[in-house]
Write the structure tokens for this entry.
Amino acid sequence: MDPLTLLGLLIVVPTWFAYNRAGLSPFLSLIVLIPLIGPILAVAILAFAAWPKIEGDTRLQYRRLK
């Protein structure tokens, strides 16, 4: 297997699962493959996007703490 293909899979697969867990489209993980700016953009999307799958859970935990 080509080393670049293996490196691409090692980067895309974990981000695929992260986007899926966040409730976002997993196809956004392909942004990582854009040279130089791709990984930064992918992390920014994950950092600043609302995570619909866990947003309700965190609100419930916050209410319990009060």
